[in-house]
Amino acid sequence: MTDVSLLTYLEGFLTEERLQRFKEVLEERTNFITVAIEDVFQLHNTSAVIRSCDAFGVQKVHVVEDRFGKRLDKNIAMGAEQWVDIHRHRNTKSCMQTLLQEGYQIVATTPHGTSRNLMDFEISKPTALFFGTEKEGLSPEVLENADVCLHIPMSGFSESLNISVAAAICLCHLTAVLRKSDLPWS
Questions:
Q1: Do the domain assignments include residue 11?
Q2: Which strands form 116-117's sheet, in the order they lie side by side?
Q3: Contact yes or no for 49/164 (Cβ under 8 A)
Q4: Which of 34, 54, 88, 161 has fewest C-beta within 10 Å?
Q5: Coil, strand, or helix at residue 130?
């Protein structure tokens, strides 16, 4: 629940420019897309994904910390962790259950199998983008239960991208498409 009188009081401590910046950022925030990071090993990768979420206006991030524990480096996140809501989960199952209960479709990112091209994906309902570990990718649990699997089209010899780069590309594309749509994204 939001205490409007408290928010109004606190606004008095901001310059007009800072208050305007808050309003501009909030107008572009979305919960229509969320990101789930599954068991990423290198803490700078989790932090960089959170920074990309902030940059592209994604408000919520779900972090599965089953095998490697807490993986957030505030120096890499560059303060983004204070502007993005981070939800921590002990395992993939609880993360997926939470997202499904909140009405999200599960979208797995993988360069393997019969995944669809990111550029051809039509976002039509709330979407949770799952990104996996650097070496192994997503768990079989996510891949088997995903509503859709997506890949980023690539033209070189490399099979995949760093998780933070992949997340940034997916978020840049999907949030741009979303903002041009008639969907209730804000």
A1: no
A2: 85-89, 60-64, 33-38, 127-131, 105-109, 148-151, 116-117
A3: yes
A4: 88
A5: strand
The total number of structural domains in the chain stands at: 1
Give the E-state strand segments of 27-173 in sequence order.
Answer: 33-38, 60-64, 85-89, 105-109, 116-117, 127-131, 148-151
Name the CA radius of gyration of the chain, rounded.
17
User: Cα–Cα distance between 56 and 53 in angstroms, integer?
Assistant: 5
CATH number of the domain enclosing 142: 3.40.1280.10
> Which span out of 16-30, 54-68, 166-180 was modeled with the highest average pLDDT?
166-180
Phi, psi of 114 (to 5 degrees): -100, 40
Q: Which domain holds residue 100?
A: 31-180
pLDDT tens digits along 36-47: 999 776 777 888
Residue for token digits 């993988």? 110
pLDDT band at residue 77, thresholds of 50, 70 and 90?
very low
Other beta carbons less than 10 A from residue 67's beta carbon: 12
pLDDT tens digits along 15-34: 888 777 767 767 889 999 99
The model's pTM is 0.85
- Cα distance between residue 181 and residue 179, in whole Å: 5
